[in-house]
Design a protein that fits this description.
The protein has 224 residues and is of the alpha/beta class. The protein has eight helices and 14 strands. It has two domains: 118 residues, Rossmann fold, CATH 3.40.50.2300; 97 residues, Arc Repressor Mutant, subunit A (Orthogonal Bundle). Helices cover 42% and strands 24% of the residues. The strands form four sheets. Strands 2-1-3-6-7 form a five-stranded parallel beta sheet, sandwiched between helices. It has a four-stranded antiparallel beta sheet with strand order 8-9-10-11, covered by helices on one side. A three-stranded antiparallel beta sheet has the order 12-14-13. It is globular and about 55 Å long.
């Protein structure tokens, strides 16, 4: 059975979410960030659902800790802090999704279900580049030392760069292919995603190069 950590300081909402999610999954819950840290140290969770503003602080620090301790664990942040810059801050910290409050419980349940369904899908043919590999269907990035689950937009951006590897791709092309059916985000949002991709690549961040004023290029290791 999949395990979920729920961190929510609103006792009524926490009880409701624990009941709904507990019908399908094993749920551990708390209203405090320090207890969340302790639980993450003891258990490997499939999904962490956390309110951003807990009793004892902003849970962005906890999200970053989850990413460090268990890169495959998915994180959904819920918060009344829902302005665009606040959502970007949450996503940049490592959240896979960011839902505003007041919360639609059914939407959260569907998000959890889809995340877990994606995890169960088999990885199919990978695209290799040097010692790394990318699985387009699942958004997984494999380096020699770890496996990273990219978020949807990160995966779309990375796939665009990978298909044009060793060539500089304009910012306009990246935005068009990463957001094909949506209003393109601000240019600064793309910079946030690129910084996040470099963090995900770790010691291989040097493969993602910037062409100032134009775009980005993903290079093969042998050509660096």
């Amino acid at each position: 059975m999949n395990t979920i950590l729920l961190l929510e300081d609103d006792g009524v909402l926490r009880k409701q979410l624990t009941s709904v999610l507990g019908a399908k999954y094993q749920v551990h819950d708390s209203g405090r960030m320090d207890e969340g840290f302790a639980l993450i140290q003891k258990h490997l969770y499939d999904v962490v659902v956390t309110d951003r503003l807990l009793i004892d602080g902003d849970s962005l620090a906890l999200i970053e800790y989850v990413r460090e301790m268990s890169p495959t664990t998915k994180v959904i942040c819920i918060s009344k802090l829902s302005k665009s810059n606040e959502r970007i801050e949450g996503l940049y910290s490592g959240a896979d999704d960011y839902l505003p409050k007041p919360l639609c419980v059914q939407e959260l349940v569907l998000k959890v279900e889809r995340i877990l369904e994606l995890e169960r899908k088999p990885q199919r043919e990978a695209i290799s580049f040097g010692p790394c590999a990318f699985f387009p269907e699942t958004g997984r990035l494999q380096t020699p030392d770890r496996t990273i689950q990219l978020r949807k937009k990160e995966a779309a951006i990375f796939y665009t760069l990978l298909r044009h590897r060793n060539y500089t791709v304009s910012r306009q092309t990246i935005l068009a292919e990463g957001w094909p059916e949506e209003t393109a985000p601000l240019q600064t949002s793309l910079d946030v995603y690129m910084r996040r991709l470099r963090i995900q690549l770790g010691e291989y961040a040097y493969l993602l190069q910037t062409s100032r004023g134009y775009g980005y290029k993903l290079v093969s290791p042998v050509e660096v």
